[in-house]
Amino acid sequence: MMEERTFSIKQTATQTGITEDTIRYYEKIALLPRAERKDNGHRIYRQEDIDTIQLISCLKKTGMPLDEMRPFLSVSTDADPAEYPELVGLLKSHRENIVSQIASLQQVVDFIDMKLEKGKYRRDCSDETRDDASDHKVSTVQMNYFPLSTGKSGV
Known about the structure:
Protein name: MerR family transcriptional regulator
Keywords: DNA-binding, Repressor, Transcription, Transcription regulation
Largest sheet: 2 strands, antiparallel
Number of helices: 7
Pfam families: MerR_1
Shape: extended
Domain HTH merR-type: 6-75
């Protein structure tokens, strides 16, 4: 029988892109199970641990708080999602939030693109500026925060 490969905390950090301190923190808050130890006290990790850390990293990138990840980490990677309808519901809800954030960020990108295209960063109070801006995907709220320029005043 082939012996399972193990990894040091340094190797694990390198493979996952997560710092050693963060890995220790995940253990401390029980997001990860306590690592086994060698006779010299050094932590050892298995591929399963690395997979879990990568899942945590992925969920974290979506903005999911660490405490909300716990239920997902307890489910086997080969589990049938139909067996966990509550987790599917949570993921769908989280996905909707992310899609909403993407749409909001796209508005900001559109606004920045418009600013770069126009080459102006401030506006005066003329009506022609508002009419000109109506061709772009910028909300009234954004207009209030990021006023347009007509070119009559400097940058």
